[in-house]
Design a protein that fits this description.
The structure is a single chain. By secondary structure, the protein is mainly beta. The chain has one domain. The protein contains three helices and twelve strands. The strands form two sheets. It has a six-stranded mixed sheet, with no helix packed on it. Strand 8 and strand 9 form a beta hairpin. It is elongated. It starts with a strand and ends in a 5-residue tail after the last helix.
């Protein structure tokens, strides 16, 4: 656990987007609240009683299963919350695992590729599938949550990797590159990334399957923690804005 100011690598998440982790298990139910463009266009300025953004939490989970019995999973959590002393408490958890299965390559000449070279701004979800009986899911959820709900247990590992035969899984949280998760197997690739791979940063999920009876899932949950702005802060901002407005008054 590190106590320091909000890292620059986390700040781009706020700009762009806006407990042990559980091997092989799903995150809590993901919910998304849809907001239309008309509503968003009217959101601006400050108002009394406004909430302020004070932290964030990222949960990443990916799993892959193929017909040959191969499995791989990776999961990670990064949480940034105020430490009560004017700084931020950064907590991290990463975990991965894999099983080789028979190690056989998928039958047939199916191919699925190209999506790994795409760059996106905002949120990008890419699915490329060739073959029969495959299932692939990309799920992203972004929510605003009261800071009081932050919690969990963390192992302090910023990266984890696992290899078993042709199955590999890895996840890392890098201060310069962002959060990256990758799972590979015969004829399959899953990846998730949050970071600055485009001008304004991005959240990207990719799934590629070239085979039969392969199941892959990507889940990403981004929570932005909010708290009520103290009266003293609002008063300070009001005075500052009033003084700034007086700069244009002629003397």
């Amino acid at each position: 656990m590190n106590r320091h100011t909000l890292p620059r690598a986390l700040f781009w998440i706020l700009v762009a987007g806006a407990g042990p982790a559980f091997a092989g298990s799903a995150l809590p139910p993901l919910r998304a609240q849809l907001v239309d463009d008309a509503t968003l266009s009217e959101v601006s300025g400050k108002f009394y009683g406004a909430n302020m953004l004070v932290g964030l939490r990222i949960d990443l989970v990916s799993t892959l299963h193929n017909a040959q019995g191969g499995t791989a999973h990776a999961t990670g959590t990064l949480q940034v919350v105020p430490d009560g002393n004017g700084g931020y408490l950064v907590q991290v958890h990463s975990e991965s695992g894999s099983g080789a299965g028979s190690g056989l390559a998928p039958a047939g000449g199916q191919q699925a590729g190209g999506g790994e070279h795409l760059q996106v701004q905002g949120i990008g979800q890419i699915a490329q599938i060739a073959g029969d009986g495959n299932r692939l899911g990309n799920i992203t959820s972004i929510s605003f949550t009261p800071a009081a709900g932050a919690g969990g247990t963390f192992n302090g590992l910023a990266s984890s990797a696992s290899t078993a035969g042709p199955m590999t899984a890895s996840i890392s949280f890098d201060p310069a590159l962002g959060a990256s998760l990758s799972i590979t197997g015969p004829g399959a690739l899953l990846s998730q990334h949050i970071g600055g791979d485009a001008a304004n940063g991005s959240i990207r999920q990719l799934g590629q399957i070239a085979g039969d009876n392969v199941t892959g899932h990507n889940q990403l949950r981004l929570q932005l923690f909010t708290a009520a702005m103290p009266d003293s802060w609002q008063q300070h901002l009001g005075i500052k804005q009033a003084l700034a407005g007086m700069d244009g008054v002629g003397r």
